[in-house]
Amino acid sequence: MAAYIALPSSISLNSSSFSGLRNRAGAQLGVRNLGRSRVSMAASVGSQTLQSDALFADYKPSSAFLFPGQGAQAVGMGKEAQSVPAAAELYKKANDILGFDLLDVCINGPKEKLDSTVISQPAIYVTSLAAVELLRARDGGQLIIDSVDVTCGLSLGEYTALAFAESFSFEDGLKLVKLRGEAMQAAADAAKSAMVSVIGLDSDKVQQLCDAANAEVDDADKVQIANYLCTGNYAVSGGVKGIEAVEAKAKSFKARMTVRLAVAGAFHTSFMEPAVSRLEAKLAETQIRTPRIPVISNVDAQPHSDPETIKKILARQVSCLELSPPYHVTRARLLI
């Protein structure tokens, strides 16, 4: 039987500081023990630049790390990083790149500042990778890390997964995430929009809910499914009035609950189109290598090995429907 693990960047591991990080539906994430280990596949390809995009076409994973996206942030996250030199060093490097004390904001907030897109995206990226270092420093941690043979992440978490898979350096990844947060915040500021997670309905019912909400709002406020997070959990994006209509109608469609997401706007929709060109320019100047293990894309739920393809997908990701890996990866269970 295969071994499985989900690594949200919280890595709770009985830690009150890292376990504060939450997923986008508001449920706390943790780490499950592996039944057995498996050395990660294709470890030697991390430095290669291959023309083919089919290197991982026949991958057979047994253990996966899943990294969270924006909305997972919580004041207090990262506190335990101070006790692990390798983790603390990541925050020091981040300070130089970002120009402010990131760990201080993570630990002390205020919440409104941490929730801003320009802060939360770098904060989650750095805290996620610091959590890996926290795990590495614990008994058996390196064995768990070495057993991971596929990785993925929710939206922003795809950047963290690529850094973990050594497709780009920590520093280059953080520079990308910094620009991504700034570009998405600017796009969100240009039009009032929001996201809400609808829990307890199948995708057809959520689409019907969106249609009902759209019948009551202008074109500028229309909504759509933006993220297929997992069965029974779908994120809806759109104008604020459309999102409010979804929330008001959800109970009549027998939804169990709705959770407004702590994000700046309607991510993974056309609202984010202004951010795409800025991302494309930054990605063009960034060195991206073939990942050492498969990284499942949010755009098409496939692993990619060609660096140029990865760049194109990362640029598209912010403005298109997101097929989140936990929903589509079935060959390796992600325990949450």
TrEMBL record:
SMART domains: PKS_AT. SUPFAM superfamilies: FabD/lysophospholipase-like (SSF52151), Probable ACP-binding domain of malonyl-CoA ACP transacylase (SSF55048). One of its GO terms (molecular function) is transferase activity. It comes from the Eukaryota. Residues 66-334 form the Malonyl-CoA:ACP transacylase (MAT) domain. This is Malonyl-CoA:ACP transacylase (MAT) domain-containing protein.
